[in-house]
Amino acid sequence: MTQTTEKDEALRKMVWEMRRSGMTLAAIGKQINRSKEDVRRLEFKHARLEREREERRAALHGLTVPELMHRSILDLELTARARNSLNQYRKYTIAEIMPMSDEELLSFHNFGKVTVAATRAAIDEAIANAEKVERNDH
Predict the structure, then answer these.
(1) Which CATH number is 61-137's, of 3.90.650.10, 1.10.150.20, 3.30.70.120, 3.90.226.10?
(2) Contacts from 116-125 at CB under 8 Å and sequence distance 24+?
(3) pTM for this structure?
(4) Is pLDDT of 103 > 90?
């Protein structure tokens, strides 16, 4: 209930500011409808991105380590910065980035320590899952 009250208060303040700036009620109504549409669009985009993330995660599940090595880096949960940088340097598969040292990755444009750590963590997680599959198969 408090959340609705906060939203209502924010809306009231926004309308008051618009009225103070000289906007007509009709123009304010149009602006609010545009804002609502923007929110709906963002929610839809977020849901689509979440589905894609789940699909990428599912694509890696159940693979053995050798199968995993030939998978695309797009199947890993990497940041856009990491994906774009790896694509720029034509590194498309997990097998291509596994043997690279941290120093090599740091030499890539837009690839900092945090990006290297996140990339290594994503690869390590995928390998750990693949090793579990191999252990369960034997």
Answers:
(1) 1.10.150.20
(2) 118/78, 118/79, 118/82, 119/76, 119/78, 119/82, 119/86, 122/76, 122/77, 122/78, 123/76, 123/94, 123/97, 123/98
(3) 0.56
(4) yes
